[in-house]
Amino acid sequence: MAGPTKQRPPPAFVHYTFGAAPDPSFTQTTLSALNPNPELLVPSPSNPSQKIRPSSATSLLDMDLVPFFPARTPVLPIESSESVAMPSFSSAPSGPVVSHSPSVDAQWTKVTKGKKGTQISSKGKTNANSLAAQPDASSLGGEDIEMNTALQERFTPGKFHKRDLRNDTMKQEVTKFRSNYIEQYLKDSSLPADPRSWLAAPEFPTPEEAQDVNEPWMTVDPADGCVVMRGNQIKGARASKDEYLQAHYEMLREDTVRPLRETISWVKNNPDSREDQRQFGGNMGLYEKVKITAMTFSVRGLAIRVAFSLGKVGKNIRWEQSKRLITGSLVALSPSQDMFKTKCIIAVVAARPLVGLQSNPPEIDLFFARPEDIEIDPQMEFVMVEERASFFEATRHTMLALQKMMGESFPLQEHLVEVLKDVEPPQYLQNQPKLDLTTAMSPKNGGEGLENVDVINHWPTDPKTTLDKSQQKALHHILTKRLATVQGPPGTGKTHVSVMALKIMLQNWRIGDPPIIIACQTNHALDQLLRHVSEFEPHFARLGGRSKETGIIKERTLFNLKQGKRINFPHGMRGPARTNMDALSKDICLALSPIELGKGLMDHNLLRKLGLLTAAQCESLEKGDSQWTTAHADSEEFPLKTWGGKQIVENKRDLHRDNFGFEFEEVDLEFEQLKELEAENNAPDDAEQDYESLRGAAISLCDAYVGRPATLTDDEIKRMLLGQDDMWKINSRFRGAVYNYLLGQAKIILLGFLRSKAQAYYLHAAKFKAGGWEHDQIILRSQKIIGMTTTGLSKYRALVAALKPKIVLIEEAAETMEAPVISACVPSLEHLILVGDHKQLRPQCAVKDLMTDPFNLNVSLFERMVENEVEMSMLKRQRRMIPEVRRLLKPIYGSSIFDHPSMKDESVRPPVPGMGGVNSLFFTHYWPETMDEQMSSTNQMEADMIVGFFDYLCLNGMTEKQITVLTFYNGQRKLLLRKLRQHPNLGSRIFKVVTVDSYQGEENDVILLSLVRSNPDGKIGFLGVENRICVALSRAKRGFYLFGNGELLAGESKIWANVVSIMAGKKGDVPAAAPKCRIVFNFPLVCSNHARKTWIKDGSDFEVTYGGCDKPCGAVLACGHPCLLTCHPFEHDMIECQESCVRALPCGHPCKAACGDRCTCLICNMRYEKRSAVWDKSVGSGQEMWKACPDGGAKQDDAVLRKKLMELDLAAAAASAQGDHDLRDRYLLDQAVGIKTHENPAIEAARAKAASPVVTAPALTSSSGIDRNSASQNGVSGSGSLAPLKIKNRIVSKGMFSLEKGFISFEDLALSGERKSTPPTTPSPVKALSPLKVAPSFNTIVIKTPTKNTKTALNKTATGPAKSSTSAKTVTTAVKRPSAPGKPIAQTNRKSEQLIDFD
Q1: Quick one: where's region Disordered (predicted)?
Q2: Whole-angstrom Cα distance, residue 827 to residue 272?
């Protein structure tokens, strides 16, 4: 027996009484049916906005409530060995069986206390026949289709339960079918079980289980009271089918319940603590001030809507990007005064519509696990906790399937349980062993045809096919073994072989054959596989989940397949179930009417009906106090209001509103993965709906009036009422307390009635869901392939079993827990195919203890079969990685895999640009790791290094889609994403930054692996897990670059030691390109233009390069201005020139925008689309000019304007030489700023005193044919002795106004000479100050708007980084590489935050 561990599942059967009982003395033995409100109406089932009279009861007073009085429910023990709970398969919350037949004599609940805490045991006596005839609602759930799309306070317009409304003109396909398989499946799931058996465990955890109280069905060690679980036995056979299924059931349940149990225990011991005060509690959700606000009537079940406060979270939540309270999550509630000391209520999140969560306070809908736990009192306040480490919805269906399998035949038991090594062909193939193989292969050299091959005895030896030898062997294994296990190392074509096998099976498919079931661990992998299937088979269906595909996969979802088809299923379960739910909804609405929002005071006749007031007391209320009160219309209608006076006041909803300002919780970057899991379990297979909402009528709850409190106990109020027939003789100051007492007692009685109705409602909701499957099977029977996830195998097991499939193929089988794969073994199964690789990722568990021996919950069925040497086949030739990357897998696979010849072809796998042929490298460092607030490991400096290298690769022509950043830690993933988004060149892109665990089966051209761990303690955590290492090393196709502490890894892991040795060139294959040693402390970059190396020590060193080397570019841009960047590998048409525009506009004014921007006239307030042509008023802007533009007219216009500008340059220079500095200053500032100097006093004050002689400058030359890296072709000529421009006493240029490629603010600007500039009081909307150069070019200075209390730096210039900084805030531009080709790059400082744009 495996070692003990604590575990808490639920009791078999819990018979109950309803809440705290009112005083028996108030119970009436005979009640007359009074109806003071004959017009009381309820919503119509077909239209909730329309009120109708209920069929049997027009008022709550007409309903028989006597059975719910305490005295009418005698507390007597029941003897019954048949009174047991049974497993179920549905998803709606449910509770214990309550028989409404007269045969139920009594029920009782026994509470005992011991060292394990309070324990509740239950027994009961009932009629066995009636019990067997009625399925256990504790195990039956509701339907996942109708959802609540509105949050109105009352019944919303629409249908009570959505009907099939069709346009009469719509073409409908009428299909008739009759099979009771699903109905029988439902009945079999509800058969009684021994209360001491694991089969008696209910679907949902019980409150006792969540509070660490042992349940009868648990195996307990009598020595210490610990619960004992059987583990997953890896080697050897299991004792029996029962032991095998029970072991997996117990481990799954513990994996689900333990995180919540530990969270409840922490809250109980720390009732006043906040969320963030729990160490390692990053997955805990703690919500206070939880109040009931409404009840929703859905076909999935009765949902209670609650509002809650985030006070213990302390921050606002971005719910659309949060894993908190996702649909299907398990939560626990307790009264705020109790804090889980005595009471615990288990519930499941039914829906989380964003419109409700984003309100203040937020609201969600809950399904209570047991009807006897439902609460309706809007005045009660609860605390609610969740634990996000596990997801209950993902395992609940699997646990139910395991229970159901105990009553079925178990195909493949001899292999799965008894681990028989030799595997026979499937029975259907033994009956007909000849198959047509022409879809996968053809005969070579005119050999015998392959249309009728005995695949068991005469498999083709050397066929003509695209499959390699190992793939052919694997294909043969898949087709001829009833349990086929195929291992596919990375890149060896597992999916390709699976698709070939499906092709052959479908080619040999005959009319009447059942569909083939295929399943994958993830929705993404399933969609990929179905996309391959769609290429050769149109008749397939996608079941469940939320497919992101918009093409053929979306069209083949079950929901879309049912559109336009009318299905006739005679005597199905769906119709009667809906009718019964409608009737129950009416009764529940009536029961809730006294506390419905907007209603008046509680009626005194109802209190009499409930046995809380006597006839004499009601009569006294109606007559009034003859001495003090005169009867009037109001007193006749609301006598209690008149009686209570000021002691009974109107009540308003007291919902707490949070105010956290602008503080938000950090976005959970893993929420998308969990959203997929949530969507899988709430798929719109049955109706068009938003899976995050719950459709159905809702009734809002609120006490309309409450009494003022008084210092009276319940016993004192009780004696007061018993001793007084005249209500007016009760002291007026106590009447508020008396009213509150009567209201509370009425709620208790009505709650008992509602809980009984809820029990029946859940049972019919389960039938409604099963009835939907009866219709679905008709559509699915006509399909040849049905795809779903492995979670869907359990969720839709009844539907799958009804289709009677013979073949089930499971991809990613080694990444899937054993239990979901077991659930695929429906009785009709003859052929199970498992495809995967146990050397890669294993299944994931929420409880890490269960991953260790003896439990081994993370060991898949695939791996267990391999470990027991059951027949298998292995693929060996990989087609993904270049050889120098593949060699790193040798420590894991040895010599088992080898390269396909194409992997050595550079046309197939070209080298990584900018790396000089070095396609794999290990950059090792000693930068220390840190921990984030979620206690996840991070490494800041390593992240900076990776972000800089990512930018370098993009500068060299790679796109962000070709690069994936992998890391082992979610904290590092968040850090990398944040830094990438903040990078000035990369911020607008979509990045692939993922954890290793979520990248199984994926690949990309270049992989950057962040290893994170670097500490003096020798701790490497996840990095020591072989399966994770295998995935991390095998994702790259062209380039693989590792960043981490190589010394630490080599010293703590044998595999990493071998990897480091291989990278160092000491072991294994040596790369063809030098150098042999690929472990470096300085990262080498190789310029693609000059083959010069740049050595990078840390992330900041990437700022000195634009993807090339440090040589100046010197080329001329298309606009005529020189390129100010250093050597760069990208084309100049990707650069946005920020010099002043020299174009004249059609309006006649000069352009005032930057050269690379859209032309703008500030005088006319116009912007022009045309950027290539130069407009000049003297040339004209008519139709002739535009016709001439395609034939070179724009170039002619440019030449004319350039000539005029040069003439003006010479004139300004001459004026300056004669001492007319004002003329030169005005010209300089007009050209640079784009605004007349006299219009801007602030810039007028900054005019420069120039003293340059007159020189002659040549015209601007075209950049056509000029080497972009040749400094001699920069267009600079002439000479002069212009006074140097200084930035805070730093000379920027000598001999001419040519500034470094940096940015300055007004406060930085001081021109040499007599005049000094001062900061302007009103900043001007300008982009660039471009002073005149003697040479025919304009260099750029970007003017920033100064702001207080901010810092800025001159980050990088054309020749190197500047080191000055100011107190002014700098808004700067960036080198941008757009995802769309042809978008230009800004030719300015690339380390800045954003592009200045005053448009």
Answers
A1: 27-56, 85-142, 1260-1280, 1349-1399
A2: 53
